Amino acid sequence: MEWGVDVFLEIISVNKSYQSKSVKQDVLKGVNLQMDEGSIGVILGPSGSGKSTLMNIIGGVDRADNGKVIVNGIEVSSLKDDKLTDYRRDSIGFVFQYYNLIPNLNVWENVEIVSNISKNPLDIDKVLAAVGLASMKNRFPRELSGGEQQRVAIARAIVKNPKLMLCDEPTGALDYETSKEVLKLLQQINKDFGTTILMITHNAGIAEMSNRVFKLRSGEIIEAHDNLEPLPAERIEW
Amino acid sequence: MALTRKVLRTMMEHKAQYIGALVMVMVSCLLFVAMMMVSNNLDSMFNDFSSNNVLGDAEFQVERPLDITMLESKFDAKIEKSSMVDYDLNPGQTLRIFAENSRVNIHEVVEGNELSSKGILIDKLFAGANGLSIGDSLSIQGRKYEINGYMVLPNYIYIIKSKEEMINDPKTFGIAVLSKENQSTIEGGYEFYSVRFNNRENVHQQEVELKAYLLSQGTNILKWESTENNNKVTVVAMEVKTLSSMSKAVPGSLLLLTVILLSILIKRMIKRESVVVGTLYAQGYRKKELIMHYMTFSIIISLLGGIIGALAGFGLVKPMINFLMMAFTMPHEKIIYTLYPVMISLLAPAIFICSASFFVINGLLKKTPAELMKGIKSSDKSNLFEKKLKLDRFKFKTKFQIREQVRNLSRSGFLLFGVIVATILLLYGLTLQSSLDYMLNEGIASLYNLKYEYVYNELKQEAPPTGFEQFNAIYVTPDFDRNSNFAIIGALPDTLRLNIKNLKGEKIVPDKVIITNILSNKLDIKKGDEITVISDEDLSKYTIKIEEIADSAAGEFMFMPLDDLNAMTGYPAGSYIGIWGDEKLEFGKGEIRSTKSMDAIAAGIKNLIVQTGIMVYGLTISSFFLGLIIIFIVTGLIIEENRNTISLIKVFGYKKKEVNKLILDSNTYVVILGYILGVPILVTSVSALMQSLTDSMQMMIPVHLNIWYIVFGFVVVMFTYESAKFLSKRKINKIPMSEALKAGTE
Predict the structure, then answer these.
(1) Considering CB atoms only, which of B396, B407, B746 is closest to A141?
(2) Which of A165, B26, B700, B745 can bridge B309 by disulfide, Cβ–Cβ 3.0-4.6 Å?
């Protein structure tokens, strides 16, 4: 799929703050962001910059205090709880830093947990083959390496054929070689399935494989630029 | 100090689980102390009453007067001649009036004054039920007697007219004592002897010897009733036995549940806190100190539960005894509070719970500080089971729920055992009701095709009254089982009054020797076996071959042709002792030994069923709450163990209902399995209890559980389960999605 054609994700003046007993902490301050369909976006930022909060708001897991979040024409920020659940269920695939696999389900079942509630899921065996885990489908998470576990997480995210895949530090818990393998896989999925992917990371090297890069600091987008010549994942270095 | 504060905080954070454990220990100790003490008190009251008031070992009627002095000396016994008469105060209301005894079965005044020359003593239950008070007068055959007081008799602790009635009804039947002179003026009574042997060893054998001696002297024994077969007395022994066995079984099960629960909780807590434990280790805490810290949970629960339970049990003793005394009439001035049930109730939970906890804690703390600081992974052990499961063909929901149960077997075991215990409690009372109902409808009502049974005082040979059918009967004791006693009934081979069916359900007639399957099971004898029995009447021995087994829940009987029974016993051909028919007959004075009305028996059993209703309601409510606590705790454990999964599937877009179903329904299989296993365990244990009570009850109740009661029990268990699920939904709803986003599980 060709990117840069339609605006897929649009964030307009999103603010978010958390109020503890006596302290109010502004986590996002008037964030604006745009991404095209079929693209790979990367949000770069140090710890505490608000990138996870932003991703949670985009994923419909958290709500902004104000501002708009529009994904594929749906104004996520105005959805009621039930509709928000439908939105996560139908449109979003999540990949987490620590994989978040369910320990007592095997590989196949960990993917099935999402396919089970999807309207038009992809064939689990095909997805597992795509992520290179066809031979490990009966293994339990504890029998897999970190990279393999993250592949399962990716398979779980793509089995519902989501419009948007949100990856929170997908290589954060992996070594260099394994990280590259996982990134290659994400790039491949973007290419094969046309899935829009938004990754958050503090690893600036990953930005080189994306189409669009956002730099977030203290809750504000301080820089947003297109990467006209994204590198294949195997060629990026950090 | 900091660690102690942590204990209390942890308990507050997991209130439901620790309060549940505390409640189970408390209820366990409460029941143990209360039941044990009530049973001890009953036992002690009965022993005191029977020895102080010289409870007779037997009562018998003979044809001619006995030389009491000679017999007392020969058999080292106390013997007293007495008399009784059933006097109808009002239609349908009988007062059984005894002559005042001074040597055996002596009455005791429990309220009011001793017997005066113009006075009468009556039982308090009868007085209360009929609005009679001390000082009132009773008119008996035209003479007025003033009620001097209320009395109790050791041979009428449970005041019933005959053993067929089973349940006392003080409105229609009571007992009274008059002076020997006054009592002898009332017409219609009969004389009998009461005997108590001074040597309390081998009473049964001494009875047999006395009987044999009387027979050898040509004394015809008209009636012999051993106290060991008299349910007006043995009902106390039955209650003591029931309470005593219940006081071990029910609290024992609850205690075991608590042991499992606390072991699970502590194991989970240490695993959860392993990083902290490792850190404390690393900072110089000794293993002993950490073990002590985690033991504190068990110590608090077991001691607090033990103390509160024992105190509550203490408080319950008096009301329970007062309640029982509404049925059992015995003097009960003071309640004996013994220390050992309290000591056991304090020590047993502490020993069992603390030692189980110690093993769990010690095992986990064997790891090095470094290993602990890395965190103890849960669910490692069930890996083998999980791997072996082939669940491919199941739906995802089913797979998830099965894996959830297999993941933590101790938790599932706790739930399974808990549901079994709750099922047993729930169905216990219903089984008794169902069994009585079965005995009435499938047993007595279906066996007998008659309304009245009359037993004469002596054998008859003339033709029975029109519409009536004759029978003969003797009571026998098997030679190999001297504790059993049953009747051999001689009936006409073409009888119309008995409906006997074989085990195939085919109608058979007593043209051969038939025993009921209840008796066959009890004595472990089969078709074709030979059995040697001893006649209760004249101690003759007979060997009889069993030719057929009857399927009847009516009781323990052997049937044979009337002529065969007469030939075997040496009774004149054609003679009979009783008649069966549908009409109520009037007989002359002294002609009839007993009258049995099938309607009265049915009413007695129905009355008993109604009486057990209170127990059924109580048990149903108790088991509901026990089940609720257990299922709620287990559901809570599942929710806690799955916090991350719940959070995660919420992120994936699972709806509230779907999350609830996936997580909360995972116990359904275990709950259903628990119920399915609980039913046969219950039937087996109630059968064992019934078997042990047979001697005291003088009848065998065939254990039977009606299918509708099974369905009802299932509905209650599932309702309990749904209630626990409903209470747990809030917990699931409260788990935020952010938990999964922050977590790093594997």
Answers:
(1) B746
(2) B26
Q: Is residue A1 part of a domain?
A: no
For A100, the domain range is 7-235
Q: Which of B297, B305, B260 is nearest to B24 (CA)?
A: B305
Confidence of residue B164 (pLDDT cuts 50, 70, 90): low
Number of domain units in chain A: 1
Set of chain B residues whose Cβ sits within 8 Å of the Cβ of A97: 744
The answer to whether B661 faces chain A, any CB pair under 8 Å, is no
CA dihedral B490, B495, B498, B499 (to 10 degrees): 130
Domain ranges of chain B: 1-36+228-316+341-376, 64-219, 385-445+598-746, 452-583
Residues of B in contact with A62 (CB under 8 A): 737-738
In CATH, what number is assigned to the domain containing residue A175?
3.40.50.300
Residue pLDDT, tens place only, B385-435: 777 778 888 888 888 888 888 887 888 888 898 889 888 888 888 888 888
Question: Does the residue A78 lie in any domain?
Answer: yes
Best-predicted range by mean pLDDT (A161-175, B93-107, B236-250): B93-107
CA A180 to chain centre: 16
CA of A199 vs chain B CAs: smallest distance (Å): 14
Least Cα separation, residue A104 to chain B (angstroms): 6
List the beta bridge partners of residue B644.
none
In angstroms, rounded to a whole number, what is the distance separating the alpha carbons of residues B713 and B682?
12
> Minimal Cα–Cα distance from B671 to chain A, Å?
21
Put simply, whether B390 touches A (Cβ < 8 Å) is no
A97–B400 C-beta distance less than 8 A:
no
For residues B266-270, give the mean pLDDT: 79
Asked if A86's CB is within 8 angstroms of B652's CB, the reply is no
CA–CA gap between residue B643 and residue B128 (Å, rounded): 62
Residues from chain A that touch B406, judged by Cβ atoms under 8 A, are 104
B403/A99 touch (CB, cutoff 8 Å), yes or no: no
Helix axes B68-75, B203-216, angle to 10 degrees: 140
**Structural domain contains residue A141:** yes
Return the higher-pLDDT residue of B275 and B580: B580
Residues of chain A neighbouring B651 (CB-CB closer than 8 A): 59, 61, 88, 94
**Most confident by average pLDDT, A117-126, B442-451, B634-643:** A117-126
What Cα–Cα distance (Å) separates residue B293 from each residue in B6, B303, B351, B355, B637? 9, 15, 17, 14, 22
* Interchain contact, A56 vs B738, CB within 8 Å: yes
Q: How far is A31 from chain B (nearest CA, A)?
A: 21
CB contact under 8 A, B403 and A105: yes
Strands B548-550 and B514-516: parallel
Residue A31 counted as domain residue: yes
Q: Which residue type does B317 have?
A: V
Answer whether B403 sits within 8 Å of A104, measured CB to CB: yes
Q: Do A56 and B655 touch (CB under 8 A)?
A: no
Q: For residue range A47-104, list pLDDT tens digits in order.
A: 889 988 899 899 998 899 999 999 999 899 899 988 988 999 989 998 888 888 888 8
In A, minimum Cα distance to B737 occurs at: A61
Q: How far is CA B347 from CA B35, B156, B303, B440, in A?
A: 17, 39, 8, 45
Tens of pLDDT, residues B235-262: 888 778 777 777 778 788 888 888 888 7
